[in-house]
Amino acid sequence: MLDAALIKDCADPSLKPAIVEPFVSAAGSADPLAVTVRSGGRLILVPKARSPDEAMDIVRQYAGKAVVRVGLTQFPAGVGVKDPADLKPDLVDACQNLRMGTVMFAKIMRIVAKWYGNPKSADAFPQIFEDAVYAWKTGEFEGVGVFQAEDPGGPITNQAEPRDGGEAEPADEETPAQTDAEPREPQEVGKAGMRIDLSRIGGK
């Protein structure tokens, strides 16, 4: 559980605390030094970092060659950075990681909300939240690389509690977590399908 003071001091103010905590619970880690490395959809086992320096050594070793996620929010290391040597220890600082992660997640939520037509109903918010978490984990939403995409801007309206208190499905260890840093296989392009639940239409 995230410390309330950490959320207040460090999280993007455009996200309510009731959204920040479920986001980190669903997509992040309780360990500020946590480093997750995936390549070709497979999880690469790396040593558990015992210090910020050790964590950054692991990040720099794999950045640019694999998908590297870091810290409380499992922020994608290397976004906007061309040289792994330019990666900063901010990635493993709890406050800075939470700030960067929530700013990026807020942008992703705006991208998803825009795709849905920016619905004003609070009932639509849980679906937007779930799709934003999915996009955070995979790096894509409807064929768009969300980490590099332009921020559509605007407020995030009707922030309601995510379904089931935000207990989203944990990332499947076998599910590829793709970002703009990892080359796409040609056969995977255009493979993404719709993720909208239509089962309730027509009273079914």
TrEMBL record:
Region (Disordered): 147-204
InterPro entries with a match to the protein in the record: TraH_2
Keywords: Plasmid
Record-given protein name: Conjugal transfer protein, TraH
Organism: Rhizobium grahamii CCGE 502
